[in-house]
């Protein structure tokens, strides 16, 4: 993004054509502002990888120009990359109180507290970074304290919505600031970046209060213990669980590290109101009658190590689900998690629990935190942008969002569907997208950040499918005759004790190959030699097993 | 299942507490009848496994008593195990014409044609095997020519529904035979085995005709080429595609091996009516104007190698999707396939196609082939069984099916929710479930059937996560000093060229470990020696990388 002085440039380092690792960059002249710094979970093709974060090469090259990291809210896909990226690039961080509270927990876990300055903002804050003035507007979402961001630059105003929905009856009176949004629109918006998660979904996302009503009803009906699982970060929903527990005179126990963490921070910062004597320790649950108990727990996505999964398989060290208990899954499985969630429901039924699960449209136990089509049109109508860049979604979501923008009057030539790294440059009110900067996925594996590449992943894939077969042989330096071996070792291919005949044949083939090469005096061309063993053994195994393990010949000369 | 003469025994070898690999066994005295012989796909934990089939140890032990394999219909989860199991156990196979046609294709692919006798039955057939008389009743499902099976034994009548729905306006006038079912019920049913796939779904599954109407409407609206993808085996839906093509004056091309196979068999056997000049070769599509073309293709589940996926990524050697073409996904993604399907839709939108996708309740392009709750209650009400065994479903489906049975008056003590291998014995009209036979999953990997066990799978899992690190060292037999190495080889752990320092350290640690052992004269205790190297290298790597590759020390003595 080397541009002339008066150009406004916008680029995503992550978050378009994907759900996750949101990171957007706005640059005017020598001032760069970063918006969000998320992570995402790898799909099943990235074997052994723990996490994906954005490739920040561009930011590293321009580190002297970076003024701030502004964080719109505290979800993982907006804050999860922070501890990894701060190690390479120090930036002051701006966020609301709850957002910074959640970031601090992360920094603490990585022993990074104090590594950078954290500045608390609220929806009324204004900040100045060189030529860029930054202000905010309140939105709602499935976590409290979310903001959209307004960038006023000499070139014009850019709005980034963050994640949002229009919940007009929000749980904790955090109304979306419609009047402020209308004002911003009236003053003219050059470019809008708006999130697209639910752009495929018709209608208007229901209010979170709907879930509260259904939770309360289920609590009234439940005769014994209640277990309820939801995303820990959904503080509004946690409040509604607390309210229902109060109304039905139940004590509340918390299970799961992230649940305990979030409740503690949200309570401390005043986002959760918990009656004084309501919280009890899981170990004290036994002291109460079953109908006096609610257990709020993690694991609603079927995570195998989380509380709900352990409870379902009677594997929790403190609590157990008994016949007649009620278990509520206040969530919808994210694609890919269905099987794990189904397994939990199976197990809970085995325990003779009553389980409220399945499609949220039937149970009423979940609503989305994201704007559906009518709300996206409402945002576009309020902001009336000249240029529109749909963000935060896979391609089909961005595509549907484009159609929505066209339907409310945005000129189709002024809509930019970009890839991560595509730069939109606006000069004299004219936008073009012609250049790209380097970006992509940085893979985190254990302590390694970016050290696992395609070769390692390809090997893991091959290993996972058919394992490895190692052929070891020792030759004498002088005559090239076999001093020991060939020995054959297998991992993940066949179980050696049950495959003697097959592995004997591999030894034979290796010996024959060595003899053949010997005759041709090719014994010292090591690469050729290894290649010949690989091929002859590989062909034999494929013919006889239809499997292709990695074949690794090790030849030692002494 | 060693029982006395007058006991009727029922057991599942596959199909309960799972979706897939259906196989049920009915035994009276010395006569055994097997119902269905399915396969299922492995989940992601079974790395490298191609297919799962039932463990048939019980049948092998009783091979002299097996009279027949009766197949209810031609879906993979009912016929997919046949070629693998016939290799070990020859049984005559009974099925309807289409079912046998599809089985023959399988046998041909495995070079097994003629290995056993195939007997064609229809809904009016009756068979006798010793003391057991077998008859059938017509049902509907998402493949034609399905039957339920009635077993009349001296102990009483057992009914197995096969897969079914009640489509009262079926596409090809294959009405479910309500009157026959009512008759069977009137004559008394001792035990009913009924499928549970949709036992969680309220209401009545819509008729397949609904899909036909929506296909026709979409065809009328389409301006250019139409691509439509569905399960090849859904012959009713294929017929509706053909009918819509005829009405809109379009030619039909077929893409994908299974589509070509099924259309050819179904056409030949008279299950598909195709106008004489309608079918064209994919290579001839170019010769027609776009609005004259329908392409019917495989890949509706997002299978990466299937036609639709190739078309979406512009990677098909004969055809391409162009701007303005219509693509219809007449299917619902099976859990686990959502991401692959979503990727295809993304790519099709990139090509500027119109795509009809997403929830079938919105598009109307798919209906289930399985009975919903009201239909399951209808079957139970028609059959009025004394004993009920819900089959064909995961535990929560069986559980919901049990509740439905109770709601229509089946005594709750007469409902058996079983595991694969649990035997229900009925003697003098009294059923008990107390004994088990051996069964389970037989894993197919390449040509190997059952030769991949837990150790190999555990290794594949470890290899897939952090790879393998091999440490090779040659020692002299006499003094035990190092003659060559230690050499370090890695696959799937780190990329060697970028990890010199780390691997050098591994070499150092190996040398130190050898020296230490040398001093203590432990050098010849090989297992201990290897264990020490594993531990010292493993600890070092975990501390420095937080990864745990398999560590494989190879020590050669010469």
From TrEMBL, chains A, B:
Q: Which cofactors, by name?
A: Ca(2+); Zn(2+)
Asked whether the keyword RNA-binding is assigned, the reply is yes
Q: Which PANTHER family match?
A: RIBONUCLEASE J (PTHR43694), RIBONUCLEASE J 2 (PTHR43694:SF4)
Q: This protein is called what?
A: Ribonuclease J
**Annotated residues for binding of Zn(2+) 1:** 73, 75, 77, 141, 163, 392
Which reactions is this enzyme annotated as catalysing?
A: 3',5'-cyclic CMP + H2O = CMP + H(+); 3',5'-cyclic UMP + H2O = UMP + H(+)
Q: Which residues form the Metallo-beta-lactamase domain?
A: 20-215
Q: How is the cofactor bound?
A: Binds 1 Ca(2+) cation per subunit. Seen in 1 crystal structure, it is not clear if it is physiologically important.
Q: Which UniProt keywords apply?
A: Calcium, Cytoplasm, Endonuclease, Exonuclease, Hydrolase, Metal-binding, Nuclease, RNA-binding, rRNA processing, Zinc
The protein's matches in NCBIfam families, at most eight in alphabetical order, are given as:
MG423
Query: What's a GO cellular component annotated to this UniProt protein?
Result: cytoplasm
Q: What does this protein do?
A: An RNase that has 5'-3' exonuclease and possibly endonuclease activity. Involved in maturation of rRNA and in some organisms also mRNA maturation and/or decay. Counteracts the endogenous Pycsar antiviral defense system. Phosphodiesterase that enables metal-dependent hydrolysis of host cyclic nucleotide Pycsar defense signals such as cCMP and cUMP.
Q: Which GO terms describe its biological process?
A: rRNA processing
Positions annotated to bind Zn(2+) 2: 78
UniProt similarity note: Belongs to the metallo-beta-lactamase superfamily. RNA-metabolizing metallo-beta-lactamase-like family. Bacterial RNase J subfamily.
Active site (UniProt):
195, 370
Q: Where in the cell is it found?
A: Cytoplasm
Q: Which molecular function terms from Gene Ontology are attached?
A: 5'-3' RNA exonuclease activity; RNA binding; RNA endonuclease activity; zinc ion binding
Entry EC number(s): 3.1.-.-
Describe the protein's quaternary organization and the partners it interacts with. Answer: Homodimer, may be a subunit of the RNA degradosome.
Fetch the HAMAP family from UniProt.
RNase_J_bact
Q: Where does Ca(2+) bind?
A: 48, 50, 445
């Amino acid at each position: 993004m080397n541009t002339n002085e008066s150009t406004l440039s916008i680029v995503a380092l992550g978050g378009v054509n994907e759900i996750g690792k949101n990171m957007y960059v706005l640059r005017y002249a020598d001032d760069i502002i970063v918006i969000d710094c998320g992570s995402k979970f790898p799909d099943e093709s990235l074997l052994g990888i723990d996490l994906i974060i954005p490739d920040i090469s561009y930011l590293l090259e321009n580190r002297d120009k970076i003024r701030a990291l502004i964080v719109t809210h505290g979800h993982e896909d907006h804050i999860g990359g922070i501890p990894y990226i701060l190690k390479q690039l120090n930036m002051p961080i701006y966020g609301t109180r709850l957002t910074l509270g959640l970031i601090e927990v992360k920094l603490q876990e990585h022993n990074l507290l104090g590594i950078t300055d954290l500045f608390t903002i609220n929806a009324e804050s204004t900040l100045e970074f060189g030529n860029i003035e930054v202000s905010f507007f309140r939105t709602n979402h499935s976590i409290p304290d979310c903001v959209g961001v307004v960038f006023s630059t000499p070139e014009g105003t850019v709005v980034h919505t963050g994640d949002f929905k229009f919940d007009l009856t929000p749980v904790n009176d955090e109304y979306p600031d419609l009047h402020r949004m209308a004002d911003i629109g009236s003053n003219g918006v050059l470019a809008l970046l708006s999130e697209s998660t639910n752009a495929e979904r018709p209608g208007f996302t229901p209010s979170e209060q709907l879930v509260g009503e259904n939770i309360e009803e289920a609590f009234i009906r439940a005769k014994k213990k209640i277990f309820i699982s939801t995303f820990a970060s959904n503080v509004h929903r946690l409040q509604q669980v607390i309210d229902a527990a109060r109304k039905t005179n139940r004590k509340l126990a918390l299970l799961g590290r992230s649940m305990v963490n979030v409740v503690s921070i949200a309570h401390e910062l005043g986002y959760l109101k918990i009656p004084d004597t309501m919280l009890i320790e899981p170990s004290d649950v036994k002291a109460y009658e079953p109908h006096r108990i609610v257990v709020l727990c993690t694991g609603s996505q079927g995570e195998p190590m989380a509380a709900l999964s352990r409870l379902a398989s009677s594997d929790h060290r403190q609590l157990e689900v008994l016949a007649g208990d009620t278990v509520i899954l206040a969530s919808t499985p994210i694609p890919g998690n269905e099987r794990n969630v189904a397994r939990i429901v199976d197990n809970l039924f085995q325990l003779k629990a009553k389980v409220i699960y399945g499609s949220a449209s039937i149970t009423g136990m979940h609503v989305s935190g994201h704007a559906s089509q009518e709300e996206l049109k409402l945002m576009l109508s309020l902001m009336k942008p000249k240029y529109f860049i749909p963000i935060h979604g896979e391609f089909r979501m961005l595509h549907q969002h484009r159609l929505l923008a066209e339907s409310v009057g945005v000129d189709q030539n002024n809509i930019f569907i970009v890839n991560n790294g595509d730069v939109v440059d606006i000069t004299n009110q004219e936008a073009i997208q012609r250049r790209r900067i380097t970006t992509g996925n940085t893979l985190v594996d254990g302590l390694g950040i970016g050290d696992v590449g395609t070769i390692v992943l390809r090997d893991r894939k091959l290993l996972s499918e058919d394992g490895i077969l190692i052929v070891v042989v020792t030759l004498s330096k002088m005559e090239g005759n076999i001093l020991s071996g060939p020995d054959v070792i297998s991992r993940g291919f066949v179980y050696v004790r049950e495959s003697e005949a097959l592995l004997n044949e591999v030894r034979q083939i290796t010996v024959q190959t060595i003899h053949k090469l010997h005759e041709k005096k090719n014994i010292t061309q090591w690469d050729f030699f290894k290649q010949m063993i690989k091929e002859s053994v590989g062909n034999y195994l494929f013919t006889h097993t239809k499997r292709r393990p990695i074949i690794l010949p090790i030849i030692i000369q002494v």
